[in-house]
Design brief:
458 residues, alpha+beta, 9-stranded mixed β-sheet, 4-stranded mixed β-sheet, 13 helices, 20 strands
Length: 458
């Protein structure tokens, strides 16, 4: 086994509508843009938690292993195997997005600024041998096969014994893990350990390993990421999709900052490759400017609607699949199935009790030496990473308002370029020569007759 899954982290957790943007969705920046990315869906209300852990493991499944600190010994019924598609749905729904607008005829008295004013802010067998376990201070509290995974719940008296037990059972883990394991043992945490059962995987017919889910209760709201840095070969990407009844989720021991958003950019960004490069470089620049120690908010919204939508809102059935357990509690016998369908468009009077926060963390052992600790806030202000393309009006312009509009286009183009350079760290010399927005040609005959010096200070 070459390595543990990069999701060697997780958890003993705790624990308004704006105006329509009226834009056209063009592209999104989902987690596929980033290498070494782990995705976690965290559903929380009170002390109850449902955690979904997707992994990006690549390689021979016989080498897969996962170790997750958990607050209690989980029963088999508290563990589930989900489908990758549901995690992809949440990723797509919350992804930062590129939108475009088209300027209207400035001579038709329907200026674009009026539209802008509407915007809102059979696996390898586990070695048994109870005598050896007791000698090392390790106890196998429970053992299950769930889907394609063989799962153990371990408790330990001291970290060196646990480390030895893991190595003897063919879990390759660095000796430097002793201190981290010891801190979890002192907190009386258990260890959720999973390997792949090859026979069950073959029966399932699945090509890729599916996400693991667990449901439990704990007063602690945190995500232990320190184990994930021990075998890491550089920065890791973590996306946390946190769903609550109340509002946004934020970190309490690291700064939570919003990703740069609402930027007007040059039209060349519409190219899919250019947008992906833009977002990767923009995030890297923002990460660096925050001294590589901030958690970034990329999306915060009620899950009943979106504007513009990078993907359709999740249905009630899909919300239940990610663990929104209070959806069941709100249903009553005899309710028409049609009344259970979530709105697909903004309906300020009918939000669902499911508010999602998308948090993006780029971390390593030096920049994030502590596990992530969270809090649920009452903040329900909408936010999304949104990047704007504005197409100039290309028809004939003959009015005075049109002439003023032409002058504004030059300034607008320069502002778009400045925005692009500032947030990405790109250099102007690297940009295409034809970057400026196309400026419409006027049909004003008097303007054409003016001498060159008469046009100089118009």
């Amino acid at each position: 086994m070459e390595r543990l899954s990069r999701l060697l982290l997780i958890v003993f957790l705790l624990p308004t509508y704006g105006h329509a943007f009226c834009g056209y969705y063009v592209s999104k920046a989902d987690t596929k843009l980033f290498n070494k990315a782990s995705k976690v869906i965290l559903v929380r209300d009170g002390d109850r938690t449902v955690l979904t852990m997707a992994n990006d493991f690549k390689g021979d499944v016989k080498e897969f292993a996962m170790i997750v600190p958990v607050p209690t010994v989980l029963e088999k019924e508290q563990i589930n195997v989900a489908e990758n598609a549901i995690v992809d749905r949440v990723d797509a729904f919350t992804a930062p997005r590129l939108v475009e607008y088209y300027d209207e005829d400035p001579c038709a008295m329907r200026m674009y600024e009026k539209t802008l004013a509407m915007s809102a802010s059979g696996g390898a067998p586990m070695k048994k041998g109870r005598g050896a376990e007791k000698d090392l201070g390790v106890t196998v509290e429970a053992q299950y096969t769930v889907g394609e995974y063989d799962i153990l719940i371990l408790s330990a008296k001291e970290s060196s014994g646990l480390l030895t037990w893991l190595k003897e059972n063919e879990y390759k883990i660095a000796d430097s893990a002793v201190k981290t394991l010891e801190s979890y043992i002192k907190q009386d945490l258990k260890f959720f350990v999973a390997k792949v059962n090859l026979k069950e995987l073959a029966k399932s017919g699945n090509e890729f390993l599916r996400p693991l889910q667990m449901a439990y209760e704990s007063t602690k709201f945190m995500l232990p990421i320190r184990l994930g840095t021990l075998n890491a070969d550089g920065d890791q990407e973590l996306f946390v999709f946190a769903v609550t009844k109340k509002g946004r989720v934020e970190t309490v021991n690291y700064r939570t900052v919003s990703i740069p958003s609402e930027l007007e950019l040059p039209l060349l960004i519409k190219d899919d490759k250019q947008f992906k490069k833009f977002y990767q470089d923009m995030f890297a620049t923002a990460h660096r400017r925050e001294d590589a120690k901030a958690v970034f908010l990329e999306y915060a919204w009620n899950m009943s609607w979106c504007d513009p939508c990078a993907a359709e809102p999740l249905t009630p059935e899909e919300l239940k699949k990610i663990g929104v357990f209070w959806m069941n509690e709100s249903e009553r016998p005899g309710v028409s199935p049609m009344n259970k369908i979530l709105p697909r468009s903004p309906r300020p009077n009918a939000p669902v009790e499911a508010y999602i926060s998308r948090l993006h963390v780029r971390y390593n052992a030096q920049t994030f030496p502590e596990d992530l600790r969270f809090q649920v806030t009452s903040n329900q202000e909408n936010f999304q990473g949104r990047y704007i393309l504005r197409h100039p009006f290309t028809g004939k312009i003959t009015c005075d308002a049109g002439k003023e509009y032409q002058k504004q286009l030059v300034d607008r183009s320069e502002k778009e370029i400045a925005n692009l350079l500032h947030v990405t760290g790109w250099k102007r010399s690297d940009l295409p020569a034809d970057l400026a927005s196309e400026v419409p040609v006027t049909d004003d005959k008097d303007q054409k007759k003016k001498k060159w010096w008469q046009k100089l200070w118009d």
